[in-house]
């Protein structure tokens, strides 16, 4: 019996045309998705959980605490502020640990590559040497793999480091920011150590001062942003190549009716890269043809999709909220997953089709899935085993529906290096043109729109916010599922300059760049930290990230990783606005996040639930930074008289009686 949906033909929560098409077709009629579960839940979220005042950190509770009522504290006496701070810190630790485990796998893969194991090789030697310098590694007259091996070993040591010396890459931050971290005692040390200390300090009966708890939460977040995430991004670039601009497609319509369709979903690029290589292997292509398929079509989902989109131009079929819909087309032979953001419902949805959910990581198995362990030491062999299993499903394909591909190209691949080159050219690579255009007002500022999708709000929320920013001449940097969503909206290509204010449009048209720069997956937010720091070092916009006319948002955050990202931006001096935080039930602690952090950090969290008002808040914060820098003043037009012209040219070669002023 077909499911009766409230609006798959007009649901206000689904605006993506391809999603609506798939949901309305016969193959999807009996599929229950997250959209259906949201509608059926019929109850609001727990007020104690939403406000952050439910404590489960010991077995005397759980304790549900109401702020301001004397006898409504925890059994141990913990107040709403203490409980909310502990819960917030644990969210930061969980999000940081996800990036940390991801990064550790990348470092191990990097070391294997340096040793000559597997099919990969060092592709970006210049970046290898640049990162080696950060770690104090000599590079002159040394073999590339020798440098890489030493770098990999030193990078791996960052995870378990026990000394008080800060992580190596914190030296990339501005001098002022490093001084702030040192003064507050929050310069991150060993990456794993910071997560462990958060968990210890939030155990029952340990740290009971919310400001002190937040110092360790900040140190933990910084170990992610300036440690694990930055390591993962940099080493991935060195092995697989630093992204450069390329065109591709983001849409469910990238699935092919006559090819083996395999969706790659998750976060660790080692698996995805191996699958990309194996899919071009003659043996695999011959097996596909033997099964009656014309080829093998890989399509990305979620952040793995962003990784292979950035480096290889392989299309993205779906973001987080569309992962079930991708299977509901009936056209997938397999969805290959590793870790993070993978819904348990996928196995249930796949039961109605010939599709297999193939899990590949021992950390993340799923009841109803097929497990094929990915071996990082034999990545190509593992990838071929996975593909072989998927290819054999092609003959089992039944009724399917693939929406017509929406021809909304995306232009992606904007690493820090690409932006530098794009603005200044090969021999004068520089952020100077960007800074100058911000100072002269053509670009009012920079906004980072990052993070997840979320079923709680309409799927055009990112588009609504970004259109407002662009109209106000604000350049947008995007990562993760936010970037995928904006790609579906037609905003991640140079043609989108038509949606900008006149001056930003002029800059985009001159340079030939999109007004929304796709910078990668959620782990790649570290690129934004590097870019922001480079803007400061270029001069003219203050002496720290906290001075920049810039702000970040993850308006549809779902994952704990998003909170960790948000907090490492705040601790780095950048304003951040989310639509909600699980802290509203603790008045003093909530005020500390939204105001009090400005004192020690030079930045704070902001909360705004309405998307339009959120966008307006971002514009207002950027304009306030411009005012503080003194660059909102319009220069008075000056007409030069003859004496002024002579002064202007006095020092030029040939000036004098035969010079230009004569």
From TrEMBL:
Keywords: 4Fe-4S, Iron, Iron-sulfur, Metal-binding, Nickel, Oxidoreductase. [Ni-4Fe-4S] cluster binds at residues 267, 303, 341, 452, 481, 522. One of its GO terms (molecular function) is anaerobic carbon-monoxide dehydrogenase activity. [4Fe-4S] cluster 1 binds at residues 46, 54. It comes from the Bacteria. One of its GO terms (biological process) is generation of precursor metabolites and energy. Coiled coil: none annotated. Its cofactor is [4Fe-4S] cluster. Its EC number is 1.2.7.4. InterPro entries: CO_DH_a-bundle, CODH, HCP/CODH, Prismane-like_a/b-sand, Prismane-like_sf. [4Fe-4S] cluster 2 binds at residues 55, 58, 63, 76. It catalyses: CO + 2 oxidized [2Fe-2S]-[ferredoxin] + H2O = 2 reduced [2Fe-2S]-[ferredoxin] + CO2 + 2 H(+). NCBIfam families: CO_DH_cata. This is Carbon monoxide dehydrogenase.
């Amino acid at each position: 019996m077909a499911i009766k949906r409230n609006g798959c033909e007009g649901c206000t929560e689904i605006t993506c045309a391809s999603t609506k098409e798939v949901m309305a077709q016969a193959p999807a009629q009996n599929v229950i998705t997250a959209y259906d579960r949201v509608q059926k839940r019929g109850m609001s979220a727990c007020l104690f959980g939403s406000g952050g005042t439910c404590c489960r950190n010991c077995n005397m509770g759980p304790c549900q605490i109401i702020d301001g009522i004397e006898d409504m504290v925890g059994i141990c006496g913990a107040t709403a502020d203490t409980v909310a701070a502990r819960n917030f810190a644990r969210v930061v630790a969980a999000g940081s640990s996800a990036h940390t485990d991801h990064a550790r796998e990348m470092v191990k893969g990097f070391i294997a590559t340096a040793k000559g194991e597997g099919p990969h090789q060092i592709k970006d030697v210049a970046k290898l040497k640049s990162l080696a310098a950060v770690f104090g590694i000599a590079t002159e007259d040394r073999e590339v793999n020798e440098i890489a091996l030493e770098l990999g070993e030193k990078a791996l040591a960052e995870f378990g480091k026990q000394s008080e010396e800060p992580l190596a890459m914190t030296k990339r931050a501005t001098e002022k920011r490093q001084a702030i971290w040192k003064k507050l005692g929050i310069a991150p040390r060993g990456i794993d150590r910071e997560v462990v200390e958060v968990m210890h300090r939030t155990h029952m009966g340990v740290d009971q001062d919310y400001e002190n708890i937040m110092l360790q939460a900040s140190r933990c977040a910084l170990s992610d942003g300036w440690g694990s995430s930055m390591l993962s991004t940099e080493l991935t670039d060195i092995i697989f190549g630093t992204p450069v601009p390329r065109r591709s497609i983001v849409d469910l319509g990238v699935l092919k009716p006559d090819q083996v369709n395999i969706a790659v979903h998750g976060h660790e690029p080692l698996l995805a890269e191996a699958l990309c290589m194996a899919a071009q292997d003659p043996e695999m292509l011959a097996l596909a043809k033997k099964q009656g398929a014309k080829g093998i079509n890989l399509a990305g989902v979620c952040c793995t999709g962003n990784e292979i989109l950035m480096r290889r131009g392989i299309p993205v079929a779906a973001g987080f909220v569309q992962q079930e819909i991708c299977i509901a087309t009936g056209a997938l032979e397999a969805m290959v997953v590793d870790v993070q953001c993978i819904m348990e419902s996928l196995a249930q949805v796949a039961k109605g089709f010939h599709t297999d959910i193939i899990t590949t990581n021992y950390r993340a198995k799923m009841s109803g899935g097929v497990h094929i362990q990915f071996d990082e030491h034999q990545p190509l062999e593992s990838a071929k085993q996975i593909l072989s299993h998927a290819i054999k499903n092609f003959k089992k394909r039944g009724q399917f529906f693939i929406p017509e591909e929406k021809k909304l190209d995306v232009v992606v691949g904007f690493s820090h290096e690409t932006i530098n080159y794009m603005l200044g050219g090969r021999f004068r690579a520089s952020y100077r043109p960007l800074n100058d255009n911000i100072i002269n007002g053509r670009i009012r500022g920079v906004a980072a729109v990052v993070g997840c999708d979320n079923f709680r709000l309409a799927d055009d929320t990112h588009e609504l916010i970004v259109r407002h920013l662009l109209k106000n001449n604000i350049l947008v940097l995007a990562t993760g599922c936010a970037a995928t969503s904006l790609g579906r909206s037609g905003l991640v290509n140079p043609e989108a300059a038509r949606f900008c204010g006149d001056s930003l449009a002029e800059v985009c048209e001159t340079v030939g760049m999109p007004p929304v720069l796709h910078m990668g997956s959620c782990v790649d937010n570290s690129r934004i930290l590097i870019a922001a720091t480079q803007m400061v070092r270029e001069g003219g916009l203050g002496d720290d990230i906290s001075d920049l006319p810039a702000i970040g948002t993850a308006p549809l955050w779902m994952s704990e990783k998003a909170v960790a990202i948000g907090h490492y931006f705040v601790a780095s001096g950048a304003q951040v606005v989310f639509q909600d935080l699980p802290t509203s039930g603790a008045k003093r602690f909530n005020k500390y996040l939204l105001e009090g952090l400005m004192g020690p950090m030079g930045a704070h969290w902001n909360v705004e639930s309405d998307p339009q008002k959120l966008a307006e808040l971002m514009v207002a914060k950027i304009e306030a930074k411009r005012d503080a820098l003194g660059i909102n003043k319009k220069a008075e037009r000056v007409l030069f008289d003859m004496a002024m012209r002579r002064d202007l040219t006095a020092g030029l070669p040939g000036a004098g009686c035969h010079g230009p002023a004569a």
